[in-house]
Target: Glycosyl transferase CAP10 domain-containing protein
Amino acid sequence: MVPGLTLDGKKKGVHPIDILISDVNQEFQRTLSTEATSLEDASKKYRKKRRRHPPPGFDAWYEFATQRGAVVVEEFWDQIYHDLGPFWGIEPRTTRSQAHALSPRIQIRGGNVTLVSTNPRDARTKMWVDMLKSLAETKHVELPDVDIPINVNQEPALVVGWEKVDTALSFARPIIASVSDVLDEYSGLKDVDHANFTFAPEWLGARLTHSLGGMHQGPRPYWSLVQPACPPKSPSRTESILVDIWHRQGHTQEAHSAVNLLPTIWPNGTLEGYIGNWSTATDACLHPHLQGLHGAFVQPDSMAASQHFFPYFSGGKMSVNNDILFPSPLEWNASLSSDADTQGGVAWESRETKLLWRGPATGGHNTAKNWRRFQRHRFVSMLNSSQIALAENSLSLHEAITKGLTSSETFRLPDSQLYNVPAQREGRLGDWVASWTDVGFTDDLHCEELSEYDACPYDSEYFSVNEPATAEKLGSNKYTVALDGNGDDGTDGFVSSMKSGHVVLRASVFRNWYDTRLRPWVHYVPMDNTFMDVYGIMEYFVGNEEGPLVPSSPRLRYRNKKSGHAAQAQKIATAAQEWADKVLRKEDMLIYVYRLLLEYARIGDDRRERLGWVGDLSEEGR
Model:
């Protein structure tokens, strides 16, 4: 979908979400029509898209994938080539020597997987080792020799300047070698195994080593690393860093408070306020306000970042990060559980029309000064009927300063004309939200000052700590939410919720290995990271049962349907469950990793321009 698309030229009287669902479904069907039907077809499509021969071992990889029922669409592996692309502009010896010098790392030699680490009992590394051993020990799988440096933190690590990455990409010119010149065996790593390499990533912590905005030796805003990683003309690169947000004494300008950073107009790249492009929605470079509205940027739980470019594998990353994506260790661990654990057994018709979410107050390290900026706190507040009612009361008072402002000061009500929600215009938004929502925290363990009641003393007035939902309750509702926690910590529950047959509302600044094989409005419902569209989204699905039909809006030009769109909701839930069972299995993680390792081994090989698989070609027929 084209970012910024409007209803002009579209069918009048059609809801924007209907247009998005139709457009994205059509695009997805076109993508599926490119599925490879044979090894020869797969290699042909590889060469057309990647402008190189497939790597050595591609035939074995294809056999491994198809025997396990994989959907072999070339686009589904785009993330691999995005992650590895800049390495083609770097000397291969540099890449493999850096990887060999780092610890912890997983080492593969002759098909044997070992961990090189000072802390071999770390749970995350053990899960990754288990995943690679599961792959390496599979019959007919021959993995190349590689060193895989792994990120043991939940947050991504590499934030390299845009110009540096762009320079590497400019040297990474694809070459399709003549068939007679192609080599089909990797060189191996004997040279690094017999050498003593050192490499210093120069990790940056949460303290500044230079003065920024007069805060000498103060907190290091993560945004100070994000900004140079964005393209030169992007909004986040050109707009100022809000230095006062991180002032040690809390001297933040009123204009930079959480509520005043929230957009008052439709988000960029949306169709009348609704997201159509997931890459645009998750791109931090396009949304400078997120520096003060998301815990990953405000105060990550742990911060170990480097501005150097080197091979480093992580379970998740943001648009500005240069880590190489692996399936998260917790994703792998969860995939080993029985499908019965996904609470998908309750028939759709028997489920309540409720949006249920329970989760910890994660997302970073919140303090008395910054907790209002955290995404999970904002979402819980926005679906709290009491806080909404107080905001509606402030509107009725016509007080310019407090107009639509909640008591927690985590959000303001969006302009009622933006999403045309009848309940909001009629002053009963709080009661309407209460009719379909059940949202709450299960703990507040990530706060600065934990009380004996597991609640933060500075926000306990606004949030209570709830018991986790039982498996029975989780499976009895139709809607749920996937919200960012701490990096790739797995607490968003996105994949498991899809497999459980829910309609999943998803908001994130992170990207995952599987994003290229999923589509918004087909497999999940995308939501802006400010959540300003949540009322409009839910009004589309659950309707406005207590309110009257309203005249056509002069802005949106469609009629609100009293009954909502229950059939569309069921269609998304069913499609998500069926598709997840096809492309988000344990087997799909191994297929992804297998292909990633073939490509990774090639970029670190001195003969990489000649390495390839050409078993489907002849010199005459190339």
